[in-house]
Amino acid sequence: ADAAILLVTEVLTLVLGLFQGRRSWFQSRRIWFLRRIFYLLIASIGLMMVVLEGSSQPWILTCFYWAVRVGLFICLTRPAETPFLPGMPKTSRESTSQEEGNAKESITQYRACIWFLMLAFCLVFETFLVVPLASGIKYRDFCEDACSFGLDYSYGVLLSSSCISCSGAMMLIWIIVGLTAFFDVYYIFYLGTSIIGYVMGHSRGLSNILATAQSHVNLSTSPTAATQSHDGMTMSEGVAMRKVFGVGWRMVWSRLAEAMYAECLISEEHVNQMVNAAGTVRWPPSRNDHGVLESMVSSTDTFTKLRFVATECRGEPRRGESRVGSSPCISALYIFTHVGAEPKKFDRLQQDDVNNGNDVYVTFDAPCSVYAVYFSVVGTRRDPTKWRLEGGWVHSDATKLLIQAEVEYDRRRKDILGPFFVEPWHKKDMGPRQSMLNLDDLPAAAAERLAFFVHSLHGLAQVNTEAPGRVVEPTLRDDLVKAEKMAVPGLLDCHVGTMPSLTQIIPCYDETVINDEGMLRASDGVNTNLAFIISQYPEEWRYLAQNIGWEPDALYQDFIGSRLPDDLTMEVRLWAAKRSQTVARTIVGAIQYHEVLSMLPKVRESASRASQLHQPPVLPSTATPTHEHVTQLILAHQTFGRKDSIKANDDAVLYLLERYKDFPVFLVFDYDSQKSREPVTGLVKSAMDKMFPAVRLGGYTPQYASVMARYKCRVGAGSALTYGALEVVEILPRCYSLRIGTNDFQTQGKAANQLSALRFAGGHYIQMMDANMGATFGEACKVPLILRQFQPFSTRDFKTTDRKRVQCRILGFREVIFTERHGVVGSIMASAEWSFGTICQRFLAGLDIRMHYGHPDFIDAFWASNRGSLSKASPEINLSEDIFAGFNARMRGERSSHSDALAWEKGRESSFNAASQFFVKVSKGSVGVMRSRDLKIIAELLNIVDNMSFYFASIAFYLNNWLIDISLQVYVLMFVLLTMSSLSLQDVGQLGSMLAAEWAVSMGIIAMLPRWFELTLEYGYFEGFVKFVPSIPGIMAAFTFINKSIASGVFEAMMTGEAKYIGTGRPNANTHYTWKQCYLLNCQTHYYPALEVFMWYIIYSSLNVQRDTASLPMFFILGTAAVWLVAPIIFCPQPTFSSLYKDLGEFWKFVVATPKVSVQHMPNPVEKSLHTEDSQATLYEMWLLKELQQHKKTFHRMPPLVHAGTLFWNILILFMLVGLVPASVFPFVWYLFVAFCFHWVCMECWRQSHRPELLVFAAFAVTFILPIVVSAMSTESMSANLFLAFMVLVQGLEAAKCFVLLVVRLWLTPDANWTQMNNETRADFEKREKAKWSNKLYDVLVEFFYVNCLTYELHLCRALIITFINLTVQVVMVLLDAACGLHSCILLNSNLGSSLGCFSFRRAYRPGGGSNSERAGIGCGGVGGNGVGGGGGGSGG
Length: 1437
Fold this sequence. Notes:
The protein is an alpha+beta fold.
């Protein structure tokens, strides 16, 4: 078997290589041919074993074969030296090279060990489960009876039908075994991902970070809280935040609470609860009492007096003893004024007589700040256990709290204790109990966000290691100083020079920027779109109403009735935009990082110092941001200012630029002088005259340019926003348009837009974000610390970095899918994306094979800008443009790392059809990846272990889904052939094969293990199990359908060589789609294959009934096919009687209607005269257009040899069918042929009598319905014979049609591009007219065969079956929705259900509640049937 597969593979590879033009490699690359010849030789030797099987010692040849096979395999798959392409800097230090070599060797050994374990498990699985499938299946034993007797030559076949069936069944059995042995590695890889990814996550401190048991957050920073646990990873959350953010972490916490309040995620009561738990005040401090502020220290305060007060001590005098003359409770105080400073020792402490030694103080000659303190208890009789440190000024009683802490002493007395850090913004008298925050008191979304934020800081706190907690001997004070100098500064303490600069880029095309009023007021059939969004976030709508002083229901009604002021109307629109997949959500999320930077003292000091030195500003003088030298936000809007763009999007962009004018926010757009609006053209030309005066004087004005602008000011006080509010900052003229190419063969638009924005990026690192992302303030606080992982601090001194030692070029992190709350589909898509972005990418990064799977990864900007940009843009190849950045890094020997400490928000499709089409797009993109040069180079130069890892990191998911889909069809056909060869399940079972039994568990369940393991890791075993089990039915149903979409996309791209962008539109979950839309999207990919599966199973069952033998139930197969048919209707929202009537009427008109004239009377070109996309589109025209395009396109792009191959393939299938079916089938063929002749007559009459629909149904009834009725009234055996006879007839007509069309093509030679021919001379005119006549005649002939050879009737038959299925399922869904809104409650959210009782129709949702009668009276407030458009993929929603 190995030799046969090797022989076929090498022959096909050699033929394909010669076909691709590799004949020239005979001189340049002979090694390629030598390798092919060697493998052909070894395969031939292996096949000789079959001939020598009867010899006395076949094992000698077997051993020789495998020895040579393994030897060649090892020699020809040696690992290649990276980088494959030059571009990775080399270091000259021997120690560095040795360290890198040891690290690479350990990673290589780790990967080899992992794959050894997984492949060993595969071997065990195949031994006990795969091999038994073919147990006893040998040709001599299996087909001996069928091929030796019962030969029937009545129809000229060489072998009997039983022999052909048996041989074919045996071949299909071995194909099943081979396919299963191939993709079982795929499922074992999922198992390895689950186990090893779980272990890696545990080592990163992710255990139970989101569990309910961890709902209490301890914000205390006392040493007691930091040493409560036995595990270093379980320090208090307050200590972790101090280590990560610095001593001023309370300001970060307060700003975080205010950001969540501004986002309407929590109420004002929750904000107060959060800040009180941290012992601080709300931000900005002006809201609070002046006395509280006076007692709190800030990071810039200086003092001349420090007072140490011990409130409780260990070793107090006994009751009744005198305290007079007591010594101080501490002997010395060590003060650090800033990070890394030399300590100041004060051992002469002044004592306050009132407290008898428990109150001491020191004074300074000059005011100074305080960063941290140590204190000594050498020679004292009492040890302070509770104490505080206050700062003040000489001759003043006013003090500020610097430190308040508790100390636990070991059995052995300690001499020096510390460090204790001064914590700004800390209120007095905050005990341990007051520092506990219960997350259960917060809304669920806020609680989960805070849980991940605080618990993920433990891993970052390990990097920001501070000095030791206690030192025993006072002689080690120098070590204290050294340790304090080596401490990595936190976020608030780090210098601006150690903070990597970041450029954030948001490329967008025509996506919705902010939901406009008309969109929010429109109806989805039951509710307005705004009401549906509110039903998903009812608490957050209530918080919005509270913040602006409105009642929730009144706010909704006033917005729907257009009674709100303009400013409140915009606030409502922004609130909705932040909860939809809009550009505004992405911009607001990116601004959070700018908010963080504006909070940092060092950044503000740097900007202030720069302004004092009169340095030239980076940005125009109209704006004065404080951190333009640290970050930059670029909105790369490809269609901004275009004449054909959506004006509302331009207005929304201008509004956002004005709203965030104090931040470095830029707009980069594509300028085309012929397509841009007049104000934009004038703006650009004016700027070009100023920037390029020489060009103006030369009289040259470029047509294309990339323009970067920013907000300047409104033109006129109180005027509306116009394009004149922009100020052009930079212009980059171009000679060509943004997308290069013509018609459908153009460079990828998204990659081109990214490159246009990259030219203006000034940061060290780039974060490319899609137009449906977001971020939170808390996660943005981690970004500067995460960016350090590109070039981390040196392990020697923790202060310097080696610019030559770049740890990675791409840094990925987790994603939080915010559309998880957008119904069941959104939850399903979110679960898949979440598990891939966490445990799967964690495991791939551990294998050192992680690619770049999209945004929002951080990328080294300098490396990307001079190593081929962020992505590639070749048409048909680089549809999945993002992964090629990972390929580029891999080919150059660079790494792509992953972090679990940061999480960015991202949206996914929440409508079922959109989700399916998204996977179709990426699956076609994976075929483009297979055809790419990048994949070829990497695969040829990696060793076998790395190739295995690379396969699963790139195309494995899509290719395996295609192979699994093939195995399903092969499985059904195999049992049909077994039955036709008179082999029953009992006969197969007697041979010991496991094929005789129905499998109770599907291997596909293993694909859900990564999500289960990650849920148990982060939520705990019980809570993870509770979250996982209820989601299984929905996930299985949805991905059964989606996996078929993936398989169909891969197959279509392989056959056509085309991989085009598919715009999903990202509609909201409440968007109702019609039956017609479902048919247009899924007819070829799902509906037709499902009907074929049922047809084969009917044949299989009928044959078993005829032979009185048992048949296999095939529950999984039939259930899968059923899901392909009914899933779009089940997951379709808004099932009402109104939508049912509308969908049925529209689809019925689409199915039965036909054009009034034939192709012969249509104007040229015919393709433009057919209605296929508008409301007048029909089934007849849709498939006729496909027939015309298929034949013309194939004839135009491919040689006639391919057409001859198609004809040969159809004839081969016809002969196989004729030889396969038994003799009892052929009388039915003649009966059906007579019916076909009647059909021919009917269609000719139909064509001559102005196309009445009655004749179409008469022909359809005679050809399809009448034979089925006759079969049902006769014996059971006629069902299978009828289906087989019909297949023979249809295949015969198809072969005849291919033959005639091929002959006509060779005779007429039609040219599809005749409209582009010249028409200047008479000869050109005659040539054009001849081509026009040939093309027209060919179109008429294609339509003739389309109608008369049952092609149209077959599509009509399938469409009618689909109509009946859709009607049945939709009626059930309507009845479920009538039962208290059960369907909408499950599919969308529980707030949309009705509480009026059982079988009460669902009413419109009313924000703020109300009685049932009131709810029944609330209208939709708008008209239309479209849901909220998220705006994606080039659609405006």
